[in-house]
């Protein structure tokens, strides 16, 4: 149910109204989850389970909002960030989100993580007309304002990313024979569909596709199957745990294909180091955020500001974990979106403001990448740059690309 509040603001304006003046009356419009003092924002994240390395994102967001609150809040209101552990389990996500919406009375759901988890609540959030904003998944389905006007993504979509990998390998690998490993859910299938689209008439270059469940203890048997297929290209569509296992097992087998790794597992601290730096050399992925391990950014003002923020607010955190940069960037965007709502903190206005960015600079995005949205475009970020792992860090190469520019 929507509530609307109208009240006088103090001082001369209130006196003018009482004295019969025609001066405009300041008006505040609130939906559920907002008061003069507070904005309640909900979130689900896998603090436990197979995707628990992503908990760094929610912890960074929580810390970011606390730092915003310490600085006075958003237009004078403090953010109450309620983040619950769903263990990367869709049924648990449904339970947690119903609690957030119906009991905790949140204003909006922000950055809930995982394609299968967000899929499980997609229709519910839109039926309830509660924003499901800047979700932590790049599935292409989050950019469908016609059918799901209360849901918006954040990161470049998986299909675009996969198309770019396909185009690159076809241009750079001689006689490619492609093996694909993907998680057996909507997240994995979205990447696979985009990859096939990118290959076009060369889709028969895929010689083997194997899948795994998010809860599987290892992907060792799948890597053995891919090696035995004769593949000389490995498209690795895995979360951090499985991605690190796959990199390490390929090295153990002496399999050295051209290796393309999905961006969601590009963290040096969470993936490349556990896999073994020596095993990760030459892996290619897409990037849209700066990486703290890449020394070319050491003198960058945004990187220096982020490091200082981390030193002050999260001194024990590992700066090599790219999830901290991701969380910082998306929390900045959410804060800006809420600021733009002013005193009209309705759910409809929140979505309107989220759909009104034009080439907006979010700190820590790669130079040349900005946020643009509209009432018909719910894809805030649509460009990436390829990077290759070298030594103990990523090395960017080539130009900023979108699916269209390939």
Describe this structure in words.
- With 406 residues, this protein is of the alpha/beta class.
- The chain folds into two domains: 31-155 and 303-375, 3-Layer(aba) Sandwich (Rossmann fold); 158-287 and 386-396, Rossmann fold (3-Layer(aba) Sandwich), CATH 3.40.50.
- Helices cover 37% and strands 15% of the residues.
- The chain has helices at 12-18, 55-70, 90-102, 115-128, 158-172, 186-199, 220-228, 240-252, 268-275, 301-313, 322-340, 347-354; strands spanning 29-30, 38-45, 78-85, 108-110, 132-133, 178-183, 206-212, 233-237, 258-261, 284-287, 344-345, 385-390, 393-396.
- Strands 3-2-4-5 form a four-stranded parallel sheet, sandwiched between helices. The protein has a four-stranded parallel sheet with strand order 7-6-8-9, sandwiched between helices.
- Helix 2 packs across helix 11 (322-340), helix 3 packs parallel to helix 4 and helix 8 runs parallel beside helix 9.
- The N and C termini lie far apart (46 Å).
